[in-house]
Amino acid sequence: MQHRISAGVIVEHDGRLLLVRHVKPGAYDFWVAPGGGVKGTESLEEAAAREAREETGLEVQVGRLLYVEEFFNPECRHVKFWFAARFMGGQLNWSHPDTVAEHITQAAWHEPGALSGLTVFPSFLTTRYASDREEGFQQPVRLPLREMTFW
């Protein structure tokens, strides 16, 4: 089994969350916060900012670590580090070649209350993020290992 280190960002702006949509007809259709694999010697924070730029066209300032997520499929075990990030500028654009190859078809800002009708990853965005934010994230939250639904 392979192992993969990933980093992503939770970006809130004007009360909305930044998400990207992955659509592979006949296989999956879900929304996820921007993020992906760490390349070479880049830091987790650098990877998170790069992934946000590639997947959404936006520049973000990466802040503190919020969550550590572990998940797996039959081929790979993932550890993903989710950081808070601040929107710094840019226009939504999901045309980067790596983004197209990952079946990302859209990037958008979503009202948290409108997520209930969508398939959203990581699941903590619809279950515990609001309460964790209200409590102030005293320390990073380590989430339990989960099996991936799509890959």
Automatic annotation (TrEMBL):
SUPFAM superfamilies: Nudix (SSF55811)
Cofactor: Mg(2+)
GO molecular function: hydrolase activity
The family this protein is said to belong to: Belongs to the Nudix hydrolase family.
Organism: Ideonella alba
Short name of any one Pfam family annotated for the protein: NUDIX
Species classification: Bacteria, Pseudomonadati, Pseudomonadota, Betaproteobacteria, Burkholderiales
Protein name: NUDIX domain-containing protein
Alphabetically ordered keywords of this record: Hydrolase, Magnesium
Domain Nudix hydrolase intervals: 2-132
